[in-house]
Each structure stands twice: as C-alpha cells, then as structure tokens.
Write a structure and sequence with these properties.
The protein is α/β, with parallel strands linked by helices and 143 residues long. It has one domain: Rossmann fold (3-Layer(aba) Sandwich). 57% of the residues lie in helices and 15% in strands. It has a five-stranded parallel β-sheet, with helices on both faces. The longest helix has 15 residues. The model has no long low-confidence stretch (mean pLDDT 91).
Amino acid sequence: MITLVLDAGVALKWAFPMANESLTNEALRLLQRYRDGEVHFIVPDVFWAEIANVVLRGARRRCWTRPDAETLTEYFAGCDFTTVPSLELLSEAMAIAFSYDRSLCECFYAALAVQARANWITADERLADALAARFPVKWLGAF
C-alpha cells in the first residue's frame, strides 16, 4: 500500500465528476485504488475546510441544493483519511510559502508530503511544475 497526500482539488473531482472536466477519469481511478486498499490518503486539516468551502459555495450559487451539499459534506467527513493538524506543519509551511511565493494553504500540503515522505497528488499542473523540483508533488495527469 502506498501513502499519498491528497489534494482537496483531486477529491472534489470525485464528488462532481464531469465528463468535460480535465482529470476526472484519473481522479476516479485514484479513488478506486483507495477503495481497493492499494492507496492510503493523508491530509492536512485544512483539506476539510477547503472541501466544505467549495461545497458551501456551490450551494450558495444554486449548483446543488442544501441537502445535497450536506450529504456531500457528510460523505467526505466519513472518509477515513489520516488528518494531520496544521499546527504541526506550520513552521515548514511558512518557510515553503516564503521561499516559493505560494499560498500558505498549498504549502501545508507540501510540508505534509515532506514530513510523511509521501507524494502529494494535485490536479493543479502549474503548481506541480512549480514545486516538483524541490518537493514530492505529482500532477494527477502524470501519476
């Protein structure tokens, strides 16, 4: 079994699979590997806020109903992902953010990948390209 740091953007593709959105099939294959017990996911605690924020925004924009948003949030909350407190990652995340001019939220994922000696899987190709030379980050499209 391999351990991966799961980016919220990848997980959200599971909830909103759209045929015309890039990397949806790759994200769904990764989910199947998780379900098959081939992959174990770890996340920084900011992952949960990112997920909930996107779901809430979608409900406010009437992309789906409030009950659908609540069901989706409960689905994610039921996922058994190992969650690491951001406080444990803060010092390293801040150093990465300053050094690479990235958002602190992104840097929590990078810091967790370093700490856990695991690859961070993201659907953001530009982010992966910007950090891959120094951090264990992989673009979902190449994973």
